[in-house]
Structure formats: C-alpha cells, structure tokens
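Notes, p. 3: input format for complexes.
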Amino acid sequence: MRAKDRILVVGAGLSGAVIARELAQEGFQVEVIDARDHVAGNCHTQRDPDTGVLVHVYGPHIFHTDDTEVWDYVNGFQTFRPYKNRVKTVSGGQVYSLPINLHTINQFFGTCFRPDEARAFVEAQADTSITEPRTFEEQALRFVGRDLYAAFFEGYTRKQWGCPPADLPAAILKRLPVRFNYEDDYFSHAHQGMPEDGYTAMVENILDHPDITVKLETRFDRTQSDGFAHVFYSGPLDGYFGYAHGRLGYRTLDFERFTYQGDYQGCAVMNYADLAVPYTRITEHKHFSPWEAHEGSVCYREFSRACGPDDIPYYPIRLVEEKALLADYAALAERETDVTFVGRLATYRYLDMDVTIREALDTARLYLERRATGGVM
Ligand code: FAD
Ligand code: UDP
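Output follows (377 residues plus uridine-5'-diphosphate):
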C-alpha cells in the first residue's frame, strides 16, 4: 500500500464514520481515531445497566430529514422504526404541547379558537413595529407577542444559553415553528425515525469495512498526520491549533440520572420553561424505543452551563465575539494543506445529524473527484 492511499480520520462520530466508509469503499486504507472509548460521537446510545433501556448518552437524538438520499443511506446501516417527537413543556404549573400550536394557544389563553381566529389573535399580540427581527427576543415578540414569549421561551432560553434572549440571534428561534392547527410533531420533515438498535449500532455498521481500522481512546495530535495522504478532522477547530487564539465559546450539558419504576412522565421529552426550575428538560429514554417493553425507567435531568476546558462542548455560542475568533481560526485552517475540517466541532456550527451526513458524503465525494482529477483539497 502506498503512503498516499492512507487516510486519517479524526473522530468516530457521524462525520468521521461516513467519510471513512465512503473512502474505504473506493480503495483507501482508512484509520479512524477517537479520544472517547466508544464510536458515534454525541449520538452515542448505550443500554442502561440497571433498566436495560437504550439511553441517548449525550442528550435526546431524533432523526428527521427531507433529504431522501441521506434517509436511504442511514436505512442501509440500521432498521429505522417510525418515531415522532411529541414534546411537552411545563410552564406556570401547567403542561402544554410544543411547538406552540392551536392546542397550546387555546389552553394558554383559555379560548376555543379555530385556526383563523387564533392566527388573528396572536397577530394582534405581536409587536409589528419590529420589521426585521435581529435578536431572539425580537423574533419572539414579532411573531408570538409578549405573553407566549414570557411563558415558553424567555426562561428556557436564559437557562439554555446563560444570557438574555435579547443577546442571541433570531436564527435560534427560527428553528421552532408556530402552528395554527393541532399538529404537535416537533419536526415537519418527510422522513423521521429512530434506529432500532440505537445510533451506536448504526455507526458501528458504517465503520464495519475491511479497509477501516478504528482506534478508540486515542487523542489526536498533529504529529499523527505523518504518513497519511490526507486528514479529515472532526474535532474542535480551536483544539487543532492548540487554542492559539483562545477558546471558542460553547455551552456544555450536565445530566442528572435517576431511575423510576413504571412511567415517570408519559413522554420522551418534557421541557421546563420556568426560570425557577434549574434544569431545561427531562428525558425519559424508554419512550424513544416504544417497541421495547421495560418496567424500569431511566431519566436524565438536563442542565446547561458555560463550557470549561475539560467539559464536552455541545452548543456553539456564535455571538459576535466568537464569530471574530472563528474568523481567526478559519484563516489558520485555510492555510493547512492536506487537512479537511468537517462536522459540528471543526466548523463550529450546530448541525443536525442529517446535515452532518449530507456534508460528510459531499466532502468525501469532492475529495475523490479531486484525487481523480489531480486537484488538491
Ligand atoms: P461529534 O458527534 O461530536 O463527533 C466528533 C468526535 O470527535 C467525537 O466522538 C469526539 O470524541 C472526537 N474527537 C474530538 N476531538 C478529538 C481529538 N482531539 N482526538 C480524537 N478524537 C476527537 N441532531 C439531530 O439530527 N436530531 C437531534 O434530535 C439532535 N439532538 C441533539 C441534542 C443535543 C443535546 C446536541 C448537542 C446535538 C443534537 N443533534 C441532533 C446534533 C448531533 O449531535 C450532531 O449532528 C452530530 O453529533 C454531529 O456529528 P459529528 O461527527 O460532526 O460530531
Ligand atoms: N426554546 C425555548 N423553549 C423551549 C424549547 C426551545 O425557548 O421549550 C428555544 C431555545 O433557545 C432553544 C431554541 O428555542 O435553543 C431552539 O430549540 P430546539 O428545540 O431546536 O433546541 P435544541 O434542539 O438545540 O436543544
């Protein structure tokens, strides 16, 4: 095997696994390393030792996409069971349906509105003086008005991001729809589901190829690139450069595990909108696998806080300061030859799993194309 045919992939999450597979299938020898003792990155699932329930170790993960090629791709490595994410939220001592829909609106205002009436009522609450919402708060006030904003978004968002919603970009709220019908599915995508044996089993199958070797508990340093034709790096961008310009800001999560005999909350995800409750949500994992029967239940209370140097980075903050720092690191990354920065950490973006897979497939294909035509990447 010539040295130029060896590829190093840093990170065995979805980004790394998909690229490794695409290149191995085309005849490259791929070595995948990961600092953790398991594959699948933040999508990792494992059986809880006490209850046998399949747990989403780094927080709840629901697969949803409109990208049919990506949907077919994941179904090639795992049987997906139908799964709809029906989230509830506790606000002011009541349980509501989320995203805000006609049921939420009627319950909250004590009304019996039909769709058009609800739309007109909510529009009357909206602050129409805001023509181009820039911040999270402006976006909320513009589209749902102060009461719904205070009940469902303000407290939750402060807990999640550790800052006033007026300091956050509008784009964060744009991820959540407001519906004037009784549709209570969190996502509106054509394809949605849950891998029957979990995401880790799926990623193990993606990596199961004779030309892929996986080394766990192996942290990358740049001397390891020697002897490889190309490196695909899905670790933190600032970490690659030894945090030379400082650290990109992230929120991290703490999970407080508890068990219960029976059904603790009746659904997989219950949000807590009030600021007085210190956690953002409780996940009851057995509801992610309704086809399995478990008497015991395992739940995670989820707390969000600023990410320290030894914590796991979860949500990129991407405020003005971070964006300036990101530009500095992006300039350094531009100058690296034979390295491609991929995935949520190395590009410092919030990426859903389907987008991660789409980008990984496109990146691998571009590399193969460039190799075939003698170009560089
Ligand atoms: P990661 O999964 O983070 O993988 C990167 C890997 O690189 C990790 O395994 C890490 O250990 C390894 N690594 C890092 N640095 C080094 C190093 N120096 N040396 C060696 N290895 C290293 N998406 C959805 O589509 N639906 C959801 O419901 C959903 N829920 C989410 C909930 C939460 C709380 C969060 C934070 C994200 C959620 N996502 C969801 C997004 C999903 O987690 C990402 O799309 C996915 O994890 C991205 O994969 P990745 O391979 O880019 O990154
Ligand atoms: N959000 C909120 N209340 C909720 C759920 C979400 O205010 O009950 C806000 C919060 O700021 C969050 C954003 O809406 O970051 C986007 O929600 P999403 O469910 O996409 O968050 P994620 O999947 O990132 O946890």
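Residues 89, 98, 152-153, 156-157, 160, 172-173, 175-176, 271, 273 surround uridine-5'-diphosphate (ligand 2) (CB under 6 Å).
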